[in-house]
Amino acid sequence: MIHLDDASMWNYNITYVDVFVKGPKLSGARKLLAKARIPFEVIIDDVQKAIDNENPPKEAVDLWENRDGHHMTWTAYHRLADIHEWMDYLAKSYPDVCSTQIIGKSFQGRNLKVLRISNGNPSNSAVWIDGGIHAREWISPATVTYIVNNLAEGWDDQPEYIRNIDWYVLPVQNPDGYEYTHQGDRLWRKNRRGSLYGPCAGVDLNRNYGYKWGGQGSSKQPCSEIYAGSGPFSEPETKAVSNFMQNSAANWKGFLTFHSYGQYILYPWGYDRLVPPDHQDLKAVGDEAAKKMLQTGGASYTVGPSGNTLYPAAGGADDWARGELKIKYSYTVELRDSGRNGFVLPASQIQPTGDEAFIFVDAVARAISKLK
Predict the structure, then answer these.
(1) In sequence order, which ranges of the chain are alpha helices (DSSP H)?
(2) How far apart are CA 33 and CA 278, in angstroms?
(3) 192-238 pLDDT, tens per residue?
(4) What pTM, to 2 d.p., does this model score?
(5) For residue 252, which of 168, 131, 194, 149 has the smallest C-alpha distance?
(6) Which are the catalytic amino acids?
(7) Are 276 and 268 within 8 A, CB to CB?
(8) C-alpha 57: how far from chain center
């Protein structure tokens, strides 16, 4: 017998399902699938071993750290303190273009720190970028910080269409969950709100945004991995983003939220199998980026509307950005890989994943520059 506590779904679309099964239950799972004549493949034989090998040895990381006045390397996955320290370093090193702001606190009181990169032009459009909304998706904050590093360190060499955008970046939207994956359960997904209904903690922050909250692809059961919370914006992490963006004077034209895994460039709608009237514009930008990724030796990304390409999921951040804030270029990007490593992507994949993501960011910036 396979119980819910013994297995969890990692990823799925209309053609496959990735399921994590605890080691002692693997034999039973094999027999169950074989009996049901369901074809399957074991893609990660030992998840704990993959976790142990995810980061390079500490000795190697120590050699790379502190070379530039901060600990960030993009050859390893870093803790929240390193990320926030590095953001402060950028603000100090490039005060003419970089600044930081605390937009709120997490459930456990950690800072939600945003970096703004701007040339100060009052006519600029604005783009929001976030990562780490799901705690176990370590490649997301790593990729978002990689993008930011490219922007900030090479600002003077960036094309005009990038420099004429105000970039607002929240690398880790779920800091409590992210830290918990480093200290406790590596595969934790939700935030760390304590439950009023028993032992199950956490809310799926990407089901907690207010647009079409509580619809299909979300759950009202606190023990569910896709628990949407007690109400829209019930969580301080999502409420902080909502308050900041709605009260900002920024001219929002782009909203990019980075996740893993699967290699998808997704656009609304996620709450249902529908598309907005300008979906061809959104697809064109995604297709352009995906084509260039392949041409430069990157991975293959699938482009399409979330609800049709993956599955309906109400209460998502990009749906809210498009539905409530009317931000035209709103996307969710599911980063590497396609399933061979799943959430436990080796740190050696950070830089190539970051290069692919920057190609997409560049494509969005060029599209925004053409808006009237």
Answers:
(1) 26-35, 47-52, 58-64, 80-93, 139-153, 160-163, 175-183, 236-247, 279-295, 306-309, 317-323, 350-369
(2) 42
(3) 998 766 679 999 999 999 999 999 999 999 999 999 999 999 999 99
(4) 0.88
(5) 168
(6) 334
(7) yes
(8) 25
